[in-house]
Amino acid sequence: MSADVVPPTPRPKATGLHKDDGSGEVRPGVAKNDPIIVADGVKRVFGGLTAVDVEHLEIPRGAITALIGPNGAGKTTLFNLLTGFDKPNAGSWSFDGTNLAGIPAFKAARMGQVRTFQLTKSLGLLTVLENMKLGAPKQTGEGIFAGILPFLWRKQEAEIEEKARGLLARFKLDTKEKDFAASLSGGQRKLLEMARALMSDPVLVMLDEPMAGVNPALTQSLLDHILDLKDLGMTVVFVEHDMHMVRHIADWVVVMAEGRVVAEGPPDTVMQNPAVIDAYLGAHQDVDLGVVTGRHAGELPPEAEELVETVHELDQAIVEAPTTDAAGVPDAAGAADADKDGDRK
Fold first, then answer.
1. What is the pLDDT of residues 50-73, one digit of tens each?
2. Where in the chain are the domains?
3. What is the rounded CA–CA span in Å between residue 94 and residue 178?
4. Residue 93's beta-bridge partner residues?
5. d(CA 112, CA 109)
6. N or C: at which end does the chain have fewer Cβ atoms within 10 angstroms?
7. Are strands 98-99 and 113-115 parallel, antiparallel or unpaired?
8. In this structure, what DSSP letter does residue 323 have?
9. DSSP structure class, residue 126
């Protein structure tokens, strides 16, 4: 989390999420008291590379779970599998007690499991309000014959529009409802995608790097909205690299490395786990990951200082690099986040 981002106001963390076996340890794959997702033997292979090999994983209901790990750990691939955007080579998983193996993404969404993407999927040539309305399920006017009979869908259309406007107001995008989505900054598109996901009244919201490339002011807003989702009774799973951010908002953390779950547990416990430190820093297992990220008191051994400085420089370079569209053209809207924030000040 950037030093410019003020941590969100602390809210009560969910506790009692896992079943205690009496050992005092939380092992990967530990059973949860009330899991909303249960995955068994999920495996995805690309050529000779095993991208995901999850023996057993349960996601606790009503909590915020962070999925962390170094680049290439398999986090997004696992997201794609669990949400029906990709097919595994083996394994099964269930959502809210229903087997989802082989279920396409749109059917999973109708059941209450929705997701966002690291690269936003807003339709640039539609207005912000039109993008929102696309997120509403079971629209009568989508049928070929019903579409030419307005009296069949006008009432529902008005209700959808009212709901969309309410969500836009909550996400502070109501003044943008008539603007084309392409005119939004990168951070505003993230807000739009999260707001649109709520049009279907989901039970589970899965966010793939929701804070990636977002300026500090909008990062703060996104963090608050994620916490709000939990307060509204939803379960949240999100992918993130910033351990400080994870510590502040996550109730539970799942750590992946080389396609496998190597650790899980409460944030403070996970950040001191040798397997987690090894996944991020290689041999420096005597270093608390919270110290490495500069988030709490402690000193690094001299041999780790140069490595940490390099990590910080790379993080800053990634944040400052302009995003590009599908054609490789720099995304001026994404780069304009900071400028717009400065104008508001």
1. 999 999 999 999 999 999 988 888
2. 35-122+184-344
3. 39
4. 39
5. 5
6. C
7. unpaired
8. P
9. S
